[in-house]
Amino acid sequence: MDFRKRVRMEILRLLRSKIMKLVIMLTLICPILGYSLYQPATYGTTSSVVLANPVLAGGLGGAFVFGMYTLYEWSRDEKARVKVLADSIINPLFNSGVKIVSLICLAFLTTVLTAIVYLPYTAVKLGIQFSVLEYILSYGLLMFLTVVMGILASASIYQIVTRAELSFIIFLLLILYSLSPWVEERYMLRWINPLIPIYSDNFGNTLLFRTSVYSRIFWISLLLGLYFVSLLSVRVYEKTIFASIRKNIKNKWLLTFSITFITTAFLMYTNQPYVDQAKVELEENYFSGGDIAVATSNKEESKGNKNLKLINTFFNISLNTLKGKTVGKAIYSIVNESQDSQECIINLSPGIKIDSIIVNGKEIEFIDLKNDYGYGNRDIITELPKDKNINMEIKYGGTVKIPAPVEGLLLGGEITSDYIYISGNELAPKLLILSDEINPIEGNITIPSNMTPVSIGKPVALLSKNMDGTNTWEVFNESGGMNFFAADYECMEIGNEFFPVNFYYSKKHSEKFENWNVEEILKSTIEYCTKTYGKLPYSKELPLNLVMNSAHFQGGGATDNLSFITESSFIEEVLNDPLKGANASEVIAHEIIHQWWGVHRFMMDMENPEWTSEGVTVYATYRMMKEKYGEEYVKKNYIDVWERELKNTNDNFYLRNPKYLTQLPERYLYNLQMEFISMNIYTKVPLQILKAEELVGGEEEMDRILKDLFSKEDTEMHPYITWQDFLDACGLIESQLNL
Hints:
Elements: H1 3-15, H2 18-33, H3 46-79, H4 83-89, H5 92-126, H6 132-161, H7 164-179, H8 206-232, H9 241-248, H10 252-270, E1 279-284, E2 291-296, E3 308-320, E4 325-336, E5 342-348, E6 352-359, E7 362-364, E8 366-368, E9 378-384, E10 389-399, E11 414-415, E12 420-423, E13 430-431, E14 441-448, E15 452-455, E16 461-465, E17 470-477, E18 483-487, E19 489-496, E20 499-506, H11 510-515, H12 518-532, E21 544-549, E22 557-559, E23 562-566, H13 572-575, H14 584-593, E24 602-603, H15 613-629, H16 631-650, H17 653-656, H18 666-696, H19 699-711, E25 720-721, H20 723-730
Parallel strand pairs: 3-14, 20-21, 21-23, 24-25
Antiparallel strand pairs: 1-2, 3-4, 4-10, 5-9, 5-13, 6-7, 6-10, 8-9, 11-12, 12-18, 14-17, 15-18, 16-17, 19-20, 22-23
Helix pairs in contact: 1-5, 2-3, 2-5, 3-5, 3-6, 3-7, 5-6, 6-7, 6-8, 8-10, 12-14, 14-15, 15-16, 15-18, 16-18, 19-20
GO molecular function: metallopeptidase activity; zinc ion binding
Transmembrane segments: 20-38, 50-72, 93-119, 139-158, 165-183, 213-232, 253-270
Protein name: Peptidase M1 membrane alanine aminopeptidase domain-containing protein
């Protein structure tokens, strides 16, 4: 019988089945669980709540119920004791193929029906942020393909073991494996629950779709390979599994497909392109005496060369947003202060490859150490001639990879058609040269013409409008280092000529920002910090740039004259409630305050890792909100929160029993202990400053102390302010601030 005709007949038969109708109904209901019970994507954006989580729940639930139905269909003839008769009428291999294709067709039909049912609600909730393409991709990649994998997995398992009960147990174990903490941060190893940390509302989710496509293809290749292996195991003439394999292996197509798909899956796994190969190992934990997981190099971390002096860096780079790739050239002016040839270590992002290095007009050789380490680092070694003045030109290109220690967040640079964030050695290779001098960096960056760029340093300048629909922009930073954003930004200009501030935000927020109090938040924070701590050195030539960044970054930050604030801080539910504790207003204020504590003055102490700019910034935010909302508000939403979180941290089982830390999976341990450190920084330190405030005589005296420290030049470890600097300024000793 014709295969397509047989598939049509099988689909019609299945649609008449009451059990199949129940399977379809259950799958339709599954996304509802994503609104409350199953929320793997971080709450913080509307897209995560109304799109990502429901689709992920639909994929998980749909794969399970379709998998169960597949086991039912495959075991039905066996239980009815008609399998021998059925196999004599129709080839079991042919019949298996018909059933698989039919179930996949019904899975597609069910997914389409589910997408149609939830479309109106999703579109209304997202409003202007709704994207038809992302909606289709979400249901296609995260639900339909997951259901297909459930069908393939259960069918393959049954055809190998031929027992429904045992097949169910194995299938369930396979699901639990994908949901276990051992693979929760490995995007390649999660088959039924693809890794989606958070959906962006405003800047697209192309990076997440890229990793999802790759992992889906990997798993489908692996499961197709397993399926064809299981076809080799299909029992013939009531023979044993091994006798059946010897019989079926004569079918060269089955063997060829099995080897091809399994080999494809193996090659995809070993050559996955999105996460680097940095190792996560254990080192001594400073607060518990146990171990802590950190990102380390496969080899000893490289050191710089003190005999070389970098004068300046210029780069020219083009960003291909469709492919997520870079092509660039960097030129370095170097002085060799010795009279000998010198080893030069070039640090670059692991996904970037060097094509050639030309020194003073001659191409030279180099060695790629392939020693991925830390957060996005790899070293190249080359030897520079003994010439005093050296001009080095490096041609490079590739993709920006996610650092392995933050794979679970899929946190890294992004180059997509909706959003660009790229920085440091992703833009241009960095020369590891030991020098106390700060060297300027300048460059040209080519991006699509529909994107507005924002950079650290001087305002970007348009160099050219190109014939291919791109624009080339000039960037420059006197203090070295480079961070670059681009998206569909609009700019809100606030401040004045003495303190200019530009706030870049998504155009999708234009109408909302007119009704919200965002401009007032920015102005009041700047006024408060200028009055309390001092004026910052900004001007028309070097304005303060505030940038809304993608929720994929999972937070904000600040460096030089650039502060970035996650879009999660601007969701309507938060901004419309100004009296809600630790709301977006405080988050925005917190990131701006980092310009004082974190950019222009930085807290660091080699003997007290908890003493960072974050703790002081949290305290400063508390003080500002107390002045604005009163003592009762900050007691409830700051002090009580700090005390509760610190108590919860100290009560943690693993902190009280550090001997058990080494028994945890390394990646789980890494996340757990980073959470401990974060809690101490964000809760313990502000509580210590609050206690110091009481001991020194009150808020005004603490304001004076911090203002003096902000302008103090002769600190213990200038330009940093150490824990001892703070204690000395307060006239206290450490034991007085024990909590």
